[in-house]
């Protein structure tokens, strides 16, 4: 443990901190999910064109996936859930921590588990333009000790005992960024944007009180931490699972929208009726954070292109922008698509990391394409599949070859205008095509 982190933990240990009393929580609530490039985001740059925003998002997507690829055959015991961290976050959410509540803006990430914020007194923190969270001013803050249930949820290499028996966490990310500090519990509060209550609170939520943080992906001082929405035990959705029926959902708006997407929990995440399809959710013990599905085939026009993959061959992820298909399968899929389109592909000046581009023309008829998951056919529209690169007058596919053999990822473009429901108890993911601006 570094001397500076030890000093901060010693500072905490002289205080007696009481635990929060559990409050009754509602069965459902909804929060706004802000895309980093929307006008509602602190990252918004009005000088960028729509094409530039999309290409920048694609580059972030590639960077995110390359970190997983480079660490997948891990020889340093770094954990996969600590690798898929979005550069500056594709989606952001607001919440409040402590009593009295302090507002925080954080990355919302289905590819991570731990909830953490920067805390005072900080040995080393990245810049933020709001004061650091001061746990000693909160009546509901509790530091955990080694051997207690929260501390046992840290994976090997992510936790250790401090000199006074406090539980210290350490998360290292794929770009050598890290957050370390005191694993603690606090009351987290959320604005309920659509439910009857104005706010909802969850006492005794486990989070990381970050005292030593070096996060190179942060280039904006508005951000203060991360909210993990993965399948692991320390994520928000796992911790509040009993109160929300172990269900959450989102409905992602296209980049062009000026509204917020919605992240729903509990009863508000349930969808029924015509058009709802479901497929088994598969948790891979070697990558326990991620939500795996089984993609059996992709249909192009009337042709079925089988993946030939094994069970649990794709990850569904909101923080990866593009969809990545295993290289061999992508080649077969791309050949079928080019045949159906009847076009010559552009060979030069293709914006990286896009791969499949062809000249733009008005009233272009795109063939019907659908993902064939086990038990669920999910049709895709042009908005899910195509990017118009206006300055080069070309259309590019949002599906690209994966750098990883055997692993594919369904990214956010492929999920636009789909209500996607994660049922962790029922072990299934459901899809319902909709207009997310009205849903």
UniProtKB/TrEMBL annotation:
* Disulfide cysteine pairs (residue numbers): 357-396
Residues in the active site? Answer: 109, 317
Where located?
Secreted
- UniProt keyword annotations, A-Z: Aspartyl protease, Disulfide bond, Glycoprotein, Hydrolase, Protease, Secreted, Signal
User: Which GO biological-process labels does this protein carry?
Assistant: proteolysis
GO MF term (any one): aspartic-type endopeptidase activity
How is this protein annotated for GO cellular component? extracellular region
Q: Where is the signal peptide?
A: 1-22
| UniProt keyword annotation of Protease present | yes
Report the residue ranges that make up the Peptidase A1 domain in this protein. Answer: 91-432
InterPro entries the record matches: Aspartic_peptidase_A1, Pepsin-like_plant, PEPTIDASE_A1, Peptidase_aspartic_dom_sf, Plant_Aspart_Prot_A1, TAXi_C, TAXi_N
Gene3D superfamilies, per database record: Acid Proteases
Record bears the keyword Cytoplasm: no
Q: Which family does it belong to?
A: Belongs to the peptidase A1 family.
**Name this polypeptide is given:** Peptidase A1 domain-containing protein
Q: Which gene encodes it?
A: Vigan.07G207000
């Amino acid at each position: 443990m570094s001397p500076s982190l030890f000093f901060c933990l010693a500072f905490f240990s002289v205080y007696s901190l009481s635990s929060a009393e559990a409050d009754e929580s509602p069965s459902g609530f909804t929060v706004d999910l802000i895309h980093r490039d929307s006008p509602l985001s602190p990252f918004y740059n009005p000088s960028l064109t729509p094409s530039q925003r999309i290409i920048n998002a694609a580059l972030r997507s590639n960077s995110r996936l390359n970190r997983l690829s480079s660490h997948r055959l891990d020889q340093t015991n770094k954990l996969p859930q600590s690798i898929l961290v979005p550069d500056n976050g594709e989606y952001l959410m607001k919440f409040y921590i402590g009593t009295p509540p302090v507002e925080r803006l954080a990355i919302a990430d289905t590819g991570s588990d731990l909830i953490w914020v920067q805390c005072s007194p900080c040995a080393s923190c990245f810049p933020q333009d709001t004061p650091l969270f001061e746990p000693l001013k909160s009546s509901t803050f509790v530091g955990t000790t080694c051997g207690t249930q929260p501390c046992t949820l840290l994976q090997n290499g992510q936790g250790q005992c401090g000199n006074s028996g406090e539980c210290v966490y350490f998360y290292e990310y794929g770009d050598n960024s890290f957050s370390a500090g005191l694993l603690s519990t606090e009351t987290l509060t959320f604005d309920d944007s659509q439910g009857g209550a104005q706010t909802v609170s969850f006492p005794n939520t486990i989070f990381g009180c970050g005292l030593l943080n070096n996060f190179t992906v942060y280039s904006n001082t508005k951000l203060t931490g991360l909210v993990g929405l993965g399948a692991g035990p320390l994520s928000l959705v796992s911790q509040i699972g009993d109160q929300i029926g172990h269900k959450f959902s989102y409905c992602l708006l296209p980049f062009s929208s000026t509204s917020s997407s919605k992240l729903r929990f509990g009863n508000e995440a349930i969808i029924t009726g015509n058009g709802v399809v479901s497929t088994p959710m598969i948790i891979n013990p070697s990558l326990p954070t991620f939500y795996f599905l089984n993609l059996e085939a992709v249909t192009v026009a009337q042709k079925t292109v089988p993946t030939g993959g094994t069970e649990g061959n794709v990850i569904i992820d909101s923080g990866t922008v593009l969809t990545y298909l295993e290289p061999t399968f992508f080649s077969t899929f791309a050949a079928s698509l080019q045949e159906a389109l009847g076009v010559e592909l552009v060979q030069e000046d293709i914006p990286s990391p896009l791969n499949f581009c062809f000249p733009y023309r008005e009233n272009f008829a795109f063939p019907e394409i659908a993902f064939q998951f086990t038990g669920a056919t999910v049709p895709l529209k042009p908005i899910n599949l195509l990017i118009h690169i206006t300055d080069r007058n070309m259309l590019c596919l949002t599906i690209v070859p994966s750098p990883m053999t055997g692993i594919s990822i369904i990214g956010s473009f492929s999920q636009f205008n789909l209500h996607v429901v994660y049922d962790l108890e029922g072990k299934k993911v459901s899809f319902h095509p909709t207009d997310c601006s009205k849903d």
